Amino acid sequence: MYTAVAVLLLPLWLLILSRRRLRLPLGERLGRVPAGSPHRNPGAGCVLTHAASAGDVQAVIPLLRQLRAHDPELHLVLTTQTRSGRALAQALELGLDVRALPVDAWPWVDRFVAELAPNVVVLEYLELWPRLLRKVKAHGATVILQNARLHPRRRGRYASGFYRELLSLVDFCTARSASDAAALGTLGVQAEVFAHSKHTTLAGQEAPRVRALLAARGLSGLERESTWLAGSLHVEEADAVLRAQVALGSSRQLLLVPRYPEHGAAIAEKAARLGLSVRRLAAAGVVAGDEQAQVHVVETVGELRTLYAAAAVALVGGTLCRRGGQNPLEAAVAGCAVVVGPHTDQIHEELQALNGGFSCDAEGLAATLECAFQVGGETSMEAVETLVLDAQRGVEKVAAEVLRALTLAS
Fold first, then answer.
1. Which of 41, 122, 239, 352 has the greatest number of beta carbons closer than 10 A?
2. pTM as predicted
3. Which stretches of the chain score pLDDT less than 50?
4. pLDDT, tens digit, for every residue of 145-163?
5. What is the architecture of the domain spanning 204-379?
């Protein structure tokens, strides 16, 4: 039934995949081998890892590094769904075979799996693609979920027989919290709990690197004591953030980093309509505006962690809308006072390490930001180090399971 529906809906699939954020090579979406794809050495194992977005790619990098260090000949395939995820994956110097995830239907997934013949499949977060899962299991692959999280509002959906059958195909799973592990347990999946794998890379940015990036982006003139940053901001949060900047006035400058760079233009237009002077910055250089702008919209990928060091206060994106929040620890480690909105159900553990940060709703954002500027941030580095060590143990455990499965398959 699922396959028949997926094939019938192919025109809709292609329409969705034509959106700029998801626009990847059509041939790869149809399961074809991309030109220049690394050749698999005879006898080498194959690990297929799927990470949909740039944030998901960051989460699997520690695992991929461990696997590559263990076996330079291993065929490591990394599939993504977004352009930003693909760009980040292609920039990694790990000898990866980077591809788009094919449309999850016959014959495209079948072609993809038959060509790769993966021994192990690692799915980041909870990317359950039905035909992909069934085909790789039919080929004898071991399936691993890393950083699994069941959103509280969606747990009822996963209780259906459809999802239970998919989850029964999982051989090993790590979850981000005890609550997630308990929810997965009710669905028949035994999960081990570890901190998010992205936390393994938490570290303060060295001053020369920060200065170099700010100079490259034309931001050297920013005064950290009067600058705040809204990081991984979703477009639906932009109105509240920009109104807060209006209320704060010209004595404060805003670095705004959209969750998806392609939303930068729309956010800049919103700022201009509110009477704010705006500067747009992309990887290729300045798109518009000058250094004296009140709002700097940074439309790049992979620079947020370094940019936090240029701000005294950071608003965590995804907390002013029902997204559950992005990672607040990177901002805290950079020395920012951390501000969050009311929607933090995805980052409870991280906020506990920060003693909650400054919390507010959209209406109280400007006042909370001003308070954060005055009070400053104090991060318990001991608590952060505990999370880092736990995340490292989680990555090591997943790597061990991958290597064990490769040994059994050889």
1. 122
2. 0.82
3. none
4. 999 998 777 788 888 899 9
5. 3-Layer(aba) Sandwich (3.40)
